[in-house]
């Protein structure tokens, strides 16, 4: 199908300019200056013309951190790959990278096969996988090589959750050595889980059971300590390191220092850490349970530091860590014991909109909005230039965005399979108008036109940001 997008302003990470876009089949075929006459010729033969006057034409968003059907605490995250990817499309995101989970005592490759069976034929947009490695041994290290051959070349480990996902420093070191030797990358959940478990036990023993204790027993100092330790292990091994869902200024300081010395260290943050705070965890009548995620929400003063990190590129991108649990029956499992509240929050639908508020408020520039939501994830996770850019030859993953539209976030109108919104009542400027996924219009005129099964699995190349630290 040929589609022409006319009269819009293209915004790439490199800048913004007026141009018309020709889509042929699944890819962008050409761009034309508005006054060149080419667009008129294209429109005459096109099957559809989309008028983007007054709107931005941006590459579809890439959410590099989601958890669909994620097992946690005896339950599963509420969005499956169908509902979660449809919600993502509504919010202008056209690619997700989810996490396959190796449980203790199981095979890495069998876990990857299991996640393929969950996603295959069910995704409305394109998708890839990271691999959670929770059991480091000779077999799993060897299986990491097979994962890389299968297009899964990022491996997440945990310094938190002893007895579930936790890895010792020795296990982390061995995995980092494998990443160094293969060109792959370790992703780290950096919190000192051993110390946190002691603080949790002490709080419960003192009768402190409310959701706010989740934040108070996971202090930012313990995120900073774990981040520094992970960076030290990466330096010793020569491996690249990617810190997931960074929430605290203490951790950001460690990342900034490492990057200033030229180390291959990268970090993401999430919208919840930019817009929500410890005050939300302290909401009365167990409402704070809606905001339980790990790392926890921080005091408000951390937000300004995270926005600064996004401006300076010490924070490379923004993902959601989308892992929704319904308040009723799931979050309520932790009534009377905050440690039993499933950890995770919904967010995949509103990431692009929330980050655009950074443009509205003057925190980031318009091109930086595109960079942290699409282009950098594409390059970080081996998808560029197929994804993450409006350019000839790229997949026609395109979001037409209305910068003047007004909207109010609410669980009554969102499309995620969860019974609350973490941003209920928040008024935003800007909203998705039309979304194309590989040349197919999946969202338009406030209606979903896509289908489960349209999305394809993406075999990813190695990260494009890694530099050699060996002196010539």
UniProtKB/TrEMBL annotation:
Free-text description of this protein's post-translational modifications in UniProt: Carbamylation allows a single lysine to coordinate two divalent metal cations.
UniProt key word Lipid metabolism: no
Q: Which organism is it from?
A: Micromonospora purpureochromogenes
Q: What is the lineage of its organism?
A: Bacteria, Bacillati, Actinomycetota, Actinomycetes, Micromonosporales
Keyword field: Hydrolase, Metal-binding
> Can you cite an annotated GO cellular component?
cytosol
Q: In what residue span(s) does the Amidohydrolase-related domain sit? A: 56-442
- Tell me, what is one Gene Ontology molecular-function annotation carried by this entry? metal ion binding
Q: Which family does it belong to?
A: Belongs to the metallo-dependent hydrolases superfamily. Hydantoinase/dihydropyrimidinase family.
Name of the protein described by the UniProt record: Dihydropyrimidinase
Q: Which CDD domains match?
A: D-HYD
Is Metal-binding among the key words of this record? yes
Q: Which cofactor does it need?
A: Zn(2+)
